[in-house]
Amino acid sequence: MPKSILIAGFAFLLFIISCTNTTTKTDSPISFKLIETDTFHFNNFVDCNMAEAWIGDTFRIFPGKYGEDPVWGAAHDLKFSSGSNADEAFSNPASAYIAPTLPVNAPVGQPGLHGAVWFETVYQDTKDPSGKTLYAIYHNENYPETLPYDSVTGEGYIDQKWPLGLTERITPAAVCRIGIMKSTDGGWNWENRGLFIEDKQARMILKPHNTSKTFAGGVGDPSAVAVGDSIYLFYGEYGYPERYDSASYDPTKEWSGQCISVARIAISDLDQPQGKAQRWGGNGFTAAWDGTGKPVASLQIPQNAGGGPASSPTGGFHWGPSVSWNEYLNCWVMLMGKVEGQSWIGDELYISFNKNKDLGKGDNSQQWSAPQKLLEKPGHVLWYPSLQPMNSEEDIKTKRTSLRLGKKARLFFKYSDLGKYFSTYVLEFE
Length: 430
Known about the structure:
Layout: E1 15-17, E2 30-41, E3 52-55, E4 58-61, E5 66-67, E6 75-76, E7 81-83, H1 86-91, E8 116-124, E9 134-142, E10 174-183, E11 191-197, E12 215-227, E13 230-237, H2 251-256, E14 259-266, E15 278-280, E16 285-288, E17 317-326, E18 331-339, E19 348-354, E20 372-376, E21 382-388, H3 393-397, E22 404-405, E23 408-415, E24 420-429
Parallel strand pairs: 10-12, 17-22
Antiparallel strand pairs: 1-2, 2-24, 3-4, 4-7, 5-6, 5-8, 8-9, 9-10, 10-11, 12-13, 13-14, 14-15, 15-16, 17-18, 18-19, 19-20, 21-23, 23-24
């Protein structure tokens, strides 16, 4: 049971955040408090946002990694767990997880799925009354070895001046991109439908400037929500905002095009997504799926406040958005991490709000409040924060997931330095 112990030694520490409408300011600020609880252990591998859906009366989650990876080794950890509620699915032992049938990696140089994938969000097709038609938005990582450059298509990467990656060994940095898979049987079998968005070779940030040991560039770590006839994808942008040239490289220019960005695609295009999505271009969703968009300005960390480019060893940017619609607040809620050093080092999590339910109208998708610190764990590395439904009668009855929540939600995040994903807090809104 939750204890009435609040972090940082305060009695009910309130963070006050004002949500701004596109036309008027809200009179009542949103406040929230973290309530410390007993540790809720998650018993399997997590290295991503928690993708989940209700299949009838079954709550199902899809954590883990799958596919070829020449640096870290081939992975077969993308499995699903089921339960009659969220707590039950999250509490299952690793032995209870089931490996779905996933598409095999295509041979190098041939069309198909390349590299490793992580499911980050599941969209459930509302036209299927059985609830079994699912679209998984996945994070995908490749290297010049798994996806060599193809001069005809422009796909892939050139192994020249390539930056170093996360390992302690001399290994290449990965490039992330975002794709879509589909299941028609509740997640037992999946087929690859193609890419959602990607950054190509010209925008990769190479030696001598890229010393972050993160990515060479690309787009990844997404969270997607459905509004009307479209899917809105919030994601991390790690590429250069124009063609990278070592002779004219500008760290301020790089910073200006990075942080958390947004793109959208029509739900009717999910079966054949490649080339259909559009990124936010500054005044609308006008940038191509593989072009250069604009990040959400309010989520960027100003340079005079420690903000910096993703290729820098000192970091200074928010990443890993997790977005949900809060039915109690009538407001979007976004959680995110913060990179403060080389190799994704960062010990803080942040929260932001957006009162505009229709993300497609005007610049509503950009109207996020300035990120407020949610918590800090000095000495640790915090990744992948997400809000999850409670094991309450209301949350079960309304079949809430990490995409749709209420007054209270359980906060999960990964202690990357410990290799563990668990929860010790409930977040309560007012």
